[in-house]
Fold this protein.
Amino acid sequence: MKHFFILFLIVTIISCNNDTVIEQVTNPEDYNLFLYSSNQNSFDRALFEKEFWSKRLRPDSTGVGDLGPLANAYTLLFDTTGDIGYLISAEIILKKAVSVSATSKDAYTRSLAQNYISQHRFKEAKQILEISYKGISNKRATQLLLFDVFLELGEYDKANKVLGKLENTNDYNYLIRLAKWNDYNGNLDAAIRNLEDAKKIADSRKSKALQIWANTNLADYYGHAGRIKESYDLYIESLKLQEDNAYAKKQIAWITYSYEKNLDEASRILDSVMTNHIAPEYYLLKAELSEFNETPLDTEKYRKDFIASINNGQYGLMYSNQLIEFYATENPEKALEIANAEIKNRETPEVYSLLAYAQLKAGNKSKALEIILNFVEGKTFEPKSLYFSALIYKENKRRDKVDEIKSELQDSFFELGPIYIKKIRDL
């Protein structure tokens, strides 16, 4: 027994030093059916709805009662394919609905605001929601969206004030906002409890849409807390509810990569997702897998694919954060240009940390430190923002701050992934 313990200890030490994981939480038998199934229920249903409501609209293009369902169909098509063109089409339809509706203008305004939020056009969403709120409107429904917008814009006092007015621990919509608020404040345990309560409500209602949202977001939080098996199980549960849920599949790929270091399996899963779903971030993840696998030609190819996919789409500000980080090393002036534009869109500590990172890469380490001290330090718990801060502290010879952040980031290795683990250790 003693010899077994010593052998186990040696294997454990070797495994930790090699960043491998003894426990494997994923099992291809759990998800293979979803990867290779031709079942695209969500897409087929959305396409049917789009065609149905389009035909209804043709005889009278001002039929406001048909505009809402048609916009919803286009939004679902975006969700299931990732094709930004569908989201833009939904926006056009919703704008028309707002302009011609006499009795449902408030509801259409909220739908348009949700569309703007998906496009990261947060200030526009805020503007139309505040105007709608002052008129005849569903105050609570509008406040829920205003909370979302305030949080995205970095207007945290306003977000907190609105959240206080919404308090109702039996309300699914309140609980998911409370979880967001607790996560922003660094209270991950509370955020998890909030979403667990929201999941219970969703399960009791047997609402697939609510269940999938609660499952995937709770799975994300479990991952951040190091509860990888529970996270994985919830993604599988989501796929059982919706076989073509691209997000759940992508996150399973992340587990096989970041936790299990199984690059081949992560790539296989990701390839299956990319067959039916379009999103620039997939190319970034493929590039990261290639970088970790030390295949520089593939890394460069996928990085170019990422830029090409954005240039060929109507993504606007949706990928600003990724672009800032992407360009910071090879074209810091372009990174600064994008970062300054994104600051005008939303002044959050996370965006300021990217601006500071771009300044550092442009050779302005003092300016970078100034931004961190004024707009980031003590204002966010987001791991990448902390890493950028540590990098800037290091260049400004603030070793005490670097060591403090390195210690904080020890629990974020799964969330950040193996590439960042090495960067953090090299600080």
Q: What stands out?
A: Confidence is low (pLDDT under 50) at residues 1-18.
